Structures are given as structure tokens and as C-alpha cells.
Amino acid sequence: MDLANLATQLNAGTILPESIVLVTLMVVLVGDLIVGRSSSRWVAYAAIAGLLGSIIALYFQWDIANPIAFLGGFNGDDLSIVFRGIIALSAAVTILMSITYVEKSGTALAEFLVILLVATLGGMFLSGANELVMIFISLESLSISSYLLTGYTKRDPRSNEAALKYLLIGASSTAVFLYGVSLLYGLSGGQTELSAIATGIVQANAGQSLGLAISLVFVIAGIGFKISAAPFHQWTPDVYEGAPTPVIAFLSVGSKAAGFALAIRLLSTAFPLLSSEWKFVFTALAVLSMILGNVVALAQTSMKRMLAYSSIAQAGFVMIGLIAGTEAGYASMVFYLLVYLFMNLGGFCCVVLFSLRTGTDQISEYSGLYQKDPLLTLCLSICLLSLGGIPPLAGFFGKIYLFWAGWQAGQYGLVLLGLVTTVVSIYYYIRVVRMMVVKEPQEMSDVVKNYPEINWTLSGMRPLQVGIVLSLIATSLAGILSNPLFTLANNSIANTPILQPVIIGSAATQSLAPVPKTAPPVSLTDRT
After folding, report:
1. What values do phi and psi take at 80, rounded to 5?
2. What per-residue confidence (pLDDT) applies to 234?
């Protein structure tokens, strides 16, 4: 094979955004070694610049003619571009809220950023992975980096405990997921590319075999762990409470987005013959997640644990779009994750700032905060109300889109349950807002009474302020000016060939033909 033909098949330009993140990682690592920790804050701004450069590169790759790269191992279609953008943007906002937090914890900032960038790379590759080996390597890059980030503040016993729990449960879920994809590999006759796996299973008449059903269950278990869906949520509350707050902010958005990207690509491409079965399983997971997440959140006294159970409930809402399996369903998932990025990270920015100023995250200690810090109160209130789905904020339109897509697909019971649990969630979100705003001055908590004087000129506070203001603006405007985001979400699904057979609902899977590794997948209607 000559070099020109090899370069064409590799199509390495498709991973230009990931290459920018990789170069940024090396600059941070080597630059910190050269300059030293005395002036290490520049590495954070270098990392943010690299992530923004990666997002710009993603913009210019929109709707490219040949998105398949590395002999079919990576698919840079529009769906992957949106998810990769969400992950990169979540990492950039996480860095903004991490600078002061990491410095005050007494740990090195550059190493934290390197691990975070590795996790970002893993999530971005996972969003476009089109082959089992790449899926597993990307998943492990994201997972191992997440374990390290969780236990990064090693002087904190709670962080160590959270990292150990996360590692043990995560290793078990990885083993389960790996066994599931190994069955998939065997049943397809030794194929690793997702479209070729579907073809191999059809040709081997293994579509209704017990082995394929077991593989599906194990794969869903691995995905459920990554998206924090009940009953695979056991790690979430403890990890959220013990891990550094910026880390759980990234896990709640970046890691969850990568998990949903994997779910859409793997289930729609490799399991087309069992679509009704995996939708049934995800229906059960969505019901459990919405009920457990919202009900248990009512009893929480820690802000971080409340947001942990809120994250479980939010995963249940997003699964409604996955279960619908229509163009509107997938587009509603993309749209909700886009707005969830801003409102959730904005809430965590506020939690980081409050904990830096007071040293606590107890909900009762927020009482009367409006009297001392109006900006923090406003931003946290907007983000929490948006998470609850209060109009005209972004979360309201996100949930309306999800529920509408589910209703159109006939998921009436699931949508009604989503509406009921949304009302429940509004209660515990508004409880925090009421404490901050309505409390009389004499009912102010002792922590707020001793609240330090607000001073944004202190070293390291400017990035956190930027993160809070940007999240506040985005959460407020994303609802009112939501049409560009709607258009982006719809186009990302309409321009993704692998989803067309699922959306059309064709039963012609028996006529699947092998897909060339250097060409984008062909829809079932074109083949027939």
C-alpha cells in the first residue's frame, strides 16, 4: 500500500480537534516542568485556549464529506462533533472553576490539568469511536483519569474514600462491559467495526440468540454506570460528596455526555435487531432513575449530594429521547445536554465559590445568602430553577422538547412520570432558592453572618467570576434564544447516516451488506 492510499484511508485530519487537545496537554506538561510551579497559573489559560481551539476546529469540520477515519475506527460525523464540543466546553469551564480550588487544596495545578485533558481526550474519542477496540481504549482513558481526579486532593480522607469506591465499582462495570462486547465480537464472526458487527450477526442468524441478549444486558450495564442511571448509580452520591467539586462538575456533564454518545452509536449500530429489547431495558432504567433520583434528593442536606441525585434524575429525563428512537428523540437528547452543560456547570461554579468562602456545602448554611452575596445568589437561583424546568429558562425548553419527542413516539406513561417527577424536583430546587432569598436577616445562618467581604480582585478569583457570569448568561439566554440550539441539534441528527435506519424503523436488516471501511455507512433504504 503506497503512502498516498494509506493517508487517504487514515484520514487523520478528522481528529484535528483531538490533536489540538493532545498538543495542549504536552504544552502544559512540559511547560510546567520548564517554568516551575512558581508561575504555574499560565498553564490553566493555555489549557483553556487549547480547548477553545479544539472547539473552533470542530466547527470547521461540520458536515465534512468523508468523516470516517483510521480504517473505520473513528467516525467524525455531525453527531460526534456536537458531543465532542460539549465535552471540550465542559472541560474549559471546569478549568475556570478549578484554578483557585486546586491551589487552595495545596496540590499541583499542572498535573490536575494534564489528567483532566486526558479525560477530555478519552471522552472526545469515545463520542466518535466506531470500533470495539477504540471504544474500550477511549472508555478506559476517560475512566482511569476520572478515578485519579476524584482522589486528587489526597490529603482529604473523603476524597480518598470516594476514589477507592469509584475505582472498585468502575473496574467491575468495565469488566462487565468488556465481557458484553467480547460476546458481540464472537457472535459477529470476529468483527470489531460496529456496522460490520451488525452485518455479521445477521449473516450468522444470531439475531435472536441468547448470547446476543446477554451481550446487550452487559453492554447496557456498562453504559448505565457511565451515565449514572439507577440501579448503577451507587457510586454517584459518595463520589460527588467526597471528590473535589470541579471534578464532579466535569463528571456530571462531560462524562455523562460521552456515555450517551456511546449509547446512541453502539446500540443503534450494533444492536438493530434488538431495538425493542434495549428500549424496554432503558425504559426501566429511566423509570428507576427519575423516581429514585428525585425522591431521594428531597432528603439531602448536602448541596453536593443533592446535585448527585439530581444528576441521576436528569439522566432519566435524557433517556426518554433515547427510548423514543426518532429524529426528534435523538435531537432532544442533544439539545438537553447542550443546555444542561451551562446550567449544571453554573450551579457547580456557585457551589465552589461558596465552599471556598465558607468551607461548607450544607444546604442549611445558604440561609440568607442574598443579604451578603447577591451575584452568587442570582446565579445559583437561575441555574437551579433551570434544572427544575421553570420557564422561560433553558431547562424548561429542554424538558418540553424531550417530553414532546417521547409523546410523539407513544411513550405516554414515561412522559407522564417525567412530568410528575419534574414537579417533585422543583420542590428541592426551590427549597434552596427560598433559603437564600426569603430568609429574614435574623434567620441568617452563622456561616453567612461571618461571610467574608466580597473581593473579586483577589488572586485566582477572576476565572471563577468569568465562569459564573458566562454560565448565568448562557442559562438565561439559551431558553429565550433557543432556536439556534434547536437547529444545531436537529441538523446533527439529520446529517448523521448511522441513525437513519433507526429513525426510519426499517425492518430490512436481513439485507445488510458489508460497509467499506473508507466510506460512510449507507442507510438501509439506500441498500434496499
Report:
1. -65, -35
2. 86
Q: In angstroms, what CA-CA distances link 506 with 185, 205, 383, 502?
A: 24, 18, 41, 7
d(CA 444, CA 467): 27
What are 107-152's pLDDT values in tens digits? 888 999 999 999 999 999 999 999 999 999 999 999 999 999 999 9
pLDDT number for residue 142 = 95
DSSP 8-state class, residue 74: E
For residues 63 and 81, what is the distance between their CA atoms, to the nearest angstrom?
Answer: 9
CA distance 284 to 290: 10
CA distance 29 to 36: 11
3-class secondary structure, 328: helix
The residue ranges of the chain whose pLDDT is under 50 are 506-528
Q: Are 323 and 286 in contact (CB under 8 A)?
A: yes
Q: What is the pLDDT of residue 502?
A: 59
User: According to the model, what pLDDT value does residue 325 have?
Assistant: 87
Bridge partners of 69? 74
Q: Which amino acid is at 136?
A: F
The CA–CA distances, whole Å, from 240 to 142, 248, 317, 442 equal: 17, 6, 20, 32
Count other C-beta atoms under 10 Å from residue 327's C-beta.
18
- H and E: helices and strands count for the chain: 23, 2
Residue 352 and residue 112: Cα distance in Å, rounded? 16
Task: Give CA–CA dist 222/470, Å, rounded.
Answer: 34
Q: Where are the alpha helices (DSSP H) in 129-189?
A: 132-150, 157-187
Grid cell in block for residue 127: 463520542
Distance CA 397, CA 389 (A): 8
Give whole-number Cα distances, 58 to 50, 123, 310, 478, 496, in Å: 12, 15, 30, 21, 15
pLDDT digits (tens, 9 = 90+) for 507-521: 333 333 333 333 444
**CA distances to 4, 269, 399 from 211, in Å:** 42, 18, 36
